[in-house]
Amino acid sequence: MRARIKWVEERTFVGESGSGHKVVLGTASGPEGKTPGPSPMELVLIGTGGCSAYDVVHILEKGREAIEDCVVELDADRAETDPKVFTRIHMHFIVTGHALSHDKVQRAINLSIEKYCSASAMLAKTAVITHDFEVVDTAVE
């Protein structure tokens, strides 16, 4: 795996993945107080949620569950001193589908966090990672 980061100006960078995808990174505030893109640590958190969501969807699809949507909301704390690593991450999964098995959703999430998600495995070295979930059943709507 490869990546390239190019400094643009002030605290703005463009990251490019080996597959050619680009993302703007930034911590400097612009005129409206907005940053030009997520900070590198925000991307780490986003990547962790994406890694786990990918696993959950994949596991449920392989189990022939009628999954329609998966959202992961993350809340994290960082150390107050450098390096300001993540010390706590809570992941809240909202999994939507038709007559989904609560047990299979729980199993998929546990497998992701405990076995398959490389990002959460790395972050678990410094952070306590917790999770919960809710299942939204479209069969009852």
Spatially, the strands of the biggest sheet line up as 1-2-3
Q: Tell me the overall shape.
A: elongated
Total DSSP E strands: 6
Backbone CA Rg: 17 Å
Beta-strand proportion: 35-45%
Helix/strand class: alpha+beta
Termini Cα gap: 44 Å
Tell me what you see in this structure.
With 141 residues, the protein is α+β, with helices and mostly antiparallel strands. The chain is 31% helix and 38% strand. The chain contains three helices and six strands, in the order E-E-E-H-E-E-H-H-E. It has helices at residues 40-62, 102-116, 118-123; strands at residues 3-9, 12-17, 22-26, 66-78, 86-98, 128-137. The strands form two sheets. The protein has a three-stranded antiparallel sheet with strand order 1-2-3, with no helix packed on it. Strands 4-5-6 form a three-stranded mixed sheet, covered by helices on one side. Strand 4 (66-78) and strand 5 (86-98) form a beta hairpin. The chain is elongated and about 50 Å long. The termini are far apart. The mean pLDDT is 94.
